Amino acid sequence: MSAARHPIREVRLGPSDVVFDRRPNGLIYVRSPHPLGPYPERMTQCLENWAAVAPDRTFLAERGSDGNWRRLTYAEARAQARRIAQSLVNRGLSAERPVAVLSANDLEHALIQFGSLYAGIPYAPISPAYSLVSTDFAKLRYIISLLTPGMVFAASGVRFSRALEAALPPDVELVVTADPLPGATLFSDLLGSEPGASLEVAHARVDASTIAKILFTSGSTGMPKGVINTHRMWASNSEMARAYFAFVADEPPVIVDWLPWNHTFAGNADMGLILYNGGTLYLDRGKPAPGQFEETVRNLREIAPTLHLNVPRGFEMLVPYLRREPRLRRNFFSRLKVMYYAGAGLSQPVWDELERLAVETCGERILMLTGLGSTETAPHALFANEAGHAGMVGLPAPGVELKLVPNEGKLDARLRGPHITPGYWRQDGLTRAAFDEEGFYKLGDALRFVDENNPQRGFMFDGRLAEDFKLATGTWVSVGPLRARVLSHFTPYVQDVAVAGHDRDYVAVLIFPDMSACRRIAAGCVASAEPAELLESAAVRSVFTSLLKEFARTATGSSNRIVSAILLDQPPSIDAHEVTDKGSLNQGAVLRNRAALVEELYRGSPRAIRIE
């Protein structure tokens, strides 16, 4: 019996039916008929609730230097966050002088966040890559100048010293957990303040419209935008998630999560899922990258999640471990209700293999779901209403209004609801441009129906409108779906791809190869050669040529037939804006920065792999 014929593990999901309002001018409005449930005015009410209801339950945990889990209960988190909040109030911090965090997820980072929430002071987590990977610190300097923070936190003064020297103004207080630089404040000092009347006054001023955090997203234009996230946004979006993942009301969720809090997927969706529903979050210091994923696997050998939320690359890297380790499989699937991916499209072969492994292990399939949203939507907006296949993004959650505007043969998606940002921090022009005349946020994504004859099945992602282009023949190329097909077809040899062809005769691609997979193709000394030599080897080029020919045979026309490709020996550059804050590829920046290589795709360069 195939995996698809096995039953799906039963889980309780919320209703997903919607109402369609089709207008004569082609506009389509879609909403849920189910009202959004009540949600708190302040996210601190969630911490207050669980500290009272389940004070000794583990809220957050991370591995200590001894390898054991260092745990923070709900009661401990509340008490320590309030002490930090008093320290922030004592310093006179405000929206004009907020708190910025440069380092990655850890318990101290979390407590800084919750202390800021209590004090009513915006908190801005900044991608650690801007400090630790960047060499010119341009994005970090830009963000600091836009924020004008009154306090900056970094886990280690020494590790962040170069970035701090380059970007931190002398009048900004630096707080570190360890390795202090001269003049820095220790994190432990923030815990020394006893909560008092001034904190109660500050906390009483916090309401639904108070800024909870500012999340930076680089988008497609280069320098980051500061997306304002209010308490209303985060709280209403957490209620939307609970309406969808209805089973979290039956059993507090448990997740193991590496995703960075500077990105809305982890910082709002995952943290919100745990905080709102009294769950437990195990901080994972691994990540889906060579040499770092083993830590994730180590954690999953010990902790059985009830949900597993990840980017597609994380699921892809998990599959070989699940194949090899029966004990890991049994633990991972033992109480798993749902797998959920976001950030990019999940390839169908990975999806199918996860289904097969689940059936082999427990006799049931596990729901694999996804949705659609953005930093500006806190992030949830649409949820998939069935376990279908890669690319399905579902229907609007309760409380969300979806507006679809016909645009060059596509449906331009726009959103309205309590979860939508009021705008961009100190960037009024960007804010005005982001909304239409009815107050709908312009998502920038195109959608299409899964089944025109059965619209209740929901929508498929149909690409980013700004990325799509026309060939010289006038044929539209939908970049998003094409990229997803390429990544699926070329698995495991491709990490990412930029699609070229604007005003050209055919589509071509710049490929960022998976170097580890390419080395497995090559033999002898070539396998250990430098990237450029490896990618020029006959063995590697032969595999990519065969895959390109196979891909061409599946094409239905010039819009999805790739004629030429170049394998890139240099990874995308964060300094050149080729990587967004969430680690995804900025297609426009890649094509602009590597314009000479794009020309080679079209003029018969020997570096290009070409099919006729």
Structure description:
The protein has 612 residues and is an alpha/beta fold. The protein has three domains: 3-39 and 241-463, Rossmann fold, CATH 3.40.50.12780; 74-206, Rossmann fold (3-Layer(aba) Sandwich); 468-610. The protein has 21 helices and 29 strands. The strands form seven sheets. It has a nine-stranded antiparallel sheet. A five-stranded parallel sheet has the order 6-5-7-8-9. Strands 4-3-13-12 form a four-stranded mixed sheet, with helices on both faces. Strand 26 and strand 27 (507-513) form a beta hairpin. The chain is globular and about 75 Å long. It starts with 18 loop residues before the first strand and ends with a strand. The model has no long low-confidence stretch (mean pLDDT 93).
Radius of gyration: 24 Å
Tell me the β content.
15-25%
Strand order of the largest sheet: 1-2-20-21-22-23-19-18-17
Structural class: alpha/beta
**Poorly predicted ranges (pLDDT <50, ≥5 residues)?**
none
| DSSP, total strands | 29
Measured between the Cα atoms of the first and last residue, the distance is 41 Å
- The CATH topology label of the largest domain is Rossmann fold
**CATH architectural category of the largest domain:** 3-Layer(aba) Sandwich
Instruction: Work out the count of structural domains.
Output: 3
Shape: globular
- Average pLDDT reading: 93
Q: Report on the biggest sheet.
A: 9 strands, antiparallel
Treating each run of at least 4 consecutive H or I residues as one helix, how many helices?
21
Helix coverage percent: 25-40%
Report the top-level CATH class of the largest domain: Alpha Beta
